[in-house]
Amino acid sequence: MKKILFSLLLIGSLSTIKAQNITDAVRYTNQNPIGTARYNAVSGAFGALGGDLSALNNNPASSAIFTESFASVTGTVDSYDNDGYYFNGITSTDDNDFSFNQLGGVFVLNNYNTQSKWKKLSFSVNYDRMQDFDNNYIASGISDNSIADYFLGNAQGFRLADLSVLDGENTDDAYFNIGQDLGYQAQQGFLGYQAFIINPVEDTDDNTNYVSNIANGNFDQEYNYTSTGYNGKINFNVATQYGENLYLGLNLNSHFIDYEVQTLFFEDNDNGGSGINSLTFTNNLEALGNGFSFQLGGIYQASPSWRLGVSYDSPTWFTIEEKTRQSLSSNGDDGVYVVAPDIVNVFERYNLKTPSRATGSIAYIFNNVGFLSFDYSFQDFSNIEYKSNSVSDFNTQNDNISNELAVVSTYRLGGEYRAGAWSFRGGYRFETSPYEDHFSQGDLTSFSAGLGYSFGAARLDIAYSRASQEMNARLYEGDFTNTAFIDQVNSNLTATLSFRL
Questions:
Q1: Within the chain, how many helices (H) and strands (E) appear?
Q2: How far apart are CA 312 and CA 47, in angstroms?
Q3: Domain spans of the chain?
């Protein structure tokens, strides 16, 4: 979307902010760190183990388990395979891409004073990609309702004069001024009216009621969703070992979001009496954000074989800015109508506070030949909260979040077996839906496996994981309520090179 920055009519801000919704809140709250190949191979069940840089995401005491300074770098091939079901249509999409998703190092300072209880101090910096936004799905089928409902719902209540191009204006000017004065909702009504998808009940300036120019019947529709970007996190970590059995740690985390999405909607009909027989609606969104959080954690070695871990993740406090661009074209009895404002809507920055998370972990170590480990995390998504310095009324959005979202429980189980220089690993992860009714998004199930080979001062690890989840994606907010059922499968092939410093 960088190429749109040439626009001469760039909007500084809107007086009424675009309504952030539950989908946005869940997207930016979800965390799915792939991590190092060793971490990924055991499905991230590292909260009581430590000794891995990506384990800092589970428990900041993890770096104190290292006995010497250490670094690792990880590359991943991410793949998705989506089946989209929309009324009578089924469409499949798949793709893959490569990224460096982890890079970090830990520096261990041992205390050689045998009289001190403080045995070591460790410092580490680690980057992990917490969520990959690269995705695409297509919903195609025959619907019995038109997207005209979307434009109708947004136009109702606005004066016809407010949705019109006034004397001395062009389409760009009108779209810009409506956004400044009346907000994003009125802009949607403006698009529908200018493309002749909706008509006023009365052709007067004070008219506030509208009807569809598309007759009832069947509609051949296709919705194409394409997103790119990521949610990343850098841990700045300090940890220590006290006595022989207790490890304590603190993370200060810097978060950043880079998310772009384009949606294309096509609709055709041959219904008798329709003034419009086809249309194309395009939306582009870019969201950039940054945030801060902290984590506290501890690991206790209850015996030579048993380790216990506990950690607390604070809320993440994000500041996010969004930009949108739209176009709408239609084809009807009187010709082709194109409404493509050369305008970028830049919305007021808003704040998003994600919920805190608590994690408990337990691990059993088999006399240095392997381990079994289990993590459980608890996070209440109903506590997600929108805020803004200039737009105070997020009450509706926050009430919807409180009523529709639920507690997310995450279970991770993993194990490793060592045979000489080789290590063999496997894992399982189950995560409950953040939605109360499980309709918008189902539970997530993931399996993983991997192996590693130690060269002494260096180690090479490889892992494969596969996660599946179902969702009912709502195409648009408002009165056009169509959803697409998406059966998602995401897989990762990960390789990590680790070495002593």
A1: 6, 22
A2: 11
A3: 2-11+21-145+217-500, 147-213
Task: Supply the pLDDT for residue 2.
Answer: 33
Q: What is the DSSP string of 394-428?
A: -HHHHHHHHHHB-EEEEEEEEEEEEETTEEEEEEE
DSSP structural state of residue 441:
B
Contact indicator for 46, 297 with CB cutoff of 8 Å = no
Contacts of 203 (CB under 8 A, 6+ apart): 160
Whether CATH 3.10.450.50 fits 2-11+21-145+217-500: no
String of DSSP letters for 46-75: -TTT--SGGGGGT-GGGGGG-SS-EEEEEE
Residue 53: beta bridge partners? none
Q: What is the pLDDT of residue 390?
A: 63
Q: What is the mean pLDDT of the chain?
A: 92
Phi, psi values for residue 155, rounded to 5°: -85, -30
**CB-based burial label for 437 (10 Å; 0-12, 13-18, 19+):** exposed
Q: What is the pLDDT of residue 1?
A: 34
Whole-angstrom Cα distance, residue 30 to residue 22?
A: 12
Cβ atoms of 423 and 414 within 8 Å: the answer is no
Residue 123, CB-side half-sphere exposure with 13 Å CA sphere: 1
CA distance 401 to 396: 9
- Going by pLDDT thresholds of 50, 70 and 90, the confidence category of residue 391 is low
User: Residue 335's beta-bridge partner residues?
Assistant: 332
Give the pLDDT confidence score for residue 392 in this predicted structure. Answer: 55
d(C-alpha 130, C-alpha 128), whole Å: 6
CB atoms closer than 10 angstroms to residue 453: 13
Nearest one of 365, 362, 466, 465 to 413, comparing CA atoms: 362
| Distance (Å, whole) CA 33 – CA 260 | 20
